[in-house]
Amino acid sequence: MRTIIQTHELSVRSETGEPLLRDISLHVEQGERIALLGRSGSGKSLISSCLAGGLSPTLARTGEIEICGRRIRDSHSVSVRDVAAVRQDSSDALNPLVRIGAQLMLPLKRGRSRVDRKASGGACDAHVLDLLDAVGLHDGHRIARSFPAQLSGGQRQRVCIALALACGPQVLVADEPTTALDVVSQATVLSALSSNLSPATAVVFVTHDLSVASGLCQRAVVLEAGRIVEDSAMRDLIASPAHPTSAALVTEAMRRSEPVS
């Protein structure tokens, strides 16, 4: 299996020199879906920014990152080639002054999707509707004409997934994409992610919620204080967590799944 993501001694320091990520060595294979798990401040979102771009300019990154065989020298760039990101705040990810259809059309016209570079505008329009339908937004014509503020949080998050799919990425980095959503919207967004990604696309799913991650990912990487403390198959971590942080995540997930009396 081809290695898509490889990091070696990846570290991030704050402006004052405080270590925020410490010697992260990680590999992700083609088509593999991994969860980065941990409490707030554990470093999981910093890893996602290092991989997908958008690391704060006040932070200093060291160590090596390779994605699809290319070394990523600058994590502060807005985007990284072959990587699509789904962020926690869909409002920030979408241009509030541009209709949804036009935003989805942009990556299609750049030729980074299944649509041919020379496809007509009509073909692109049809593919926009196909993308929206694929993520459960079946009223595609209305959604495409809408501005982001006219949609619910769950709808906007599904649009962000459609936007990522339109890019045809080798890697999808999803950073807490369901945190701000209700349970029903969470399930819909996860289903959209799980059902519509190419089997060859590697997924890095960032969350603090093990119950959410277990429905999507086969492997779990647990972080604490900027370090990896456990890296194992999801089923093994749930059955027999090897680190106290992992055990606490399992306990919390089980507590949440208990029926309310």
Q: Estimate what percentage of residues fall within beta strands.
A: 15-25%
Report helical residue fraction: 25-40%
Q: What about the largest sheet?
A: 6 strands, mixed
Order of helices and strands: EEEHEEEHHHHHEHEHEEHH
How far is the first residue's CA from the last residue's CA? 47 Å
Quick one: CATH class of the domain at 3-92 and 171-257? Alpha Beta
- State the shape: globular
Mean pLDDT: 87
For this structure, what is the CATH homologous superfamily of the domain at 3-92 and 171-257?
P-loop containing nucleotide triphosphate hydrolases
Strand segment count: 10
In which order are the strands of the major sheet placed?
6-7-8-3-9-10
Low-confidence stretches: 112-119
Name given to the CATH architecture of the domain at 3-92 and 171-257: 3-Layer(aba) Sandwich
Count helical runs: 10
Structural class: alpha/beta
CATH topology of the domain at 3-92 and 171-257: Rossmann fold
- The Cα radius of gyration reads 18 Å
Characterise the protein shown here:
The chain is of the alpha/beta class and 261 residues long. The protein has a domain at 3-92 and 171-257: Rossmann fold (3-Layer(aba) Sandwich), CATH 3.40.50. It contains 10 helices and 10 strands. The chain has helices spanning 44-52, 90-93, 100-109, 121-134, 140-145, 153-166, 183-196, 210-214, 234-239, 244-257, and strands at residues 3-13, 19-29, 33-37, 60-67, 70-71, 83-86, 171-175, 202-207, 219-224, 227-233. A 6-stranded mixed sheet has the order 6-7-8-3-9-10, sandwiched between helices. It is globular. The chain starts with a strand and ends with a helix. The model is unreliable at 112-119 (pLDDT under 50). Keywords: ATP-binding, Cell inner membrane, Cell membrane, Membrane, Nucleotide-binding, Translocase, Transport. It is found in: Cell membrane. Belongs to the ABC transporter superfamily. One of its GO terms (molecular function) is ATP binding. This is Peptide/nickel transport system ATP-binding protein.
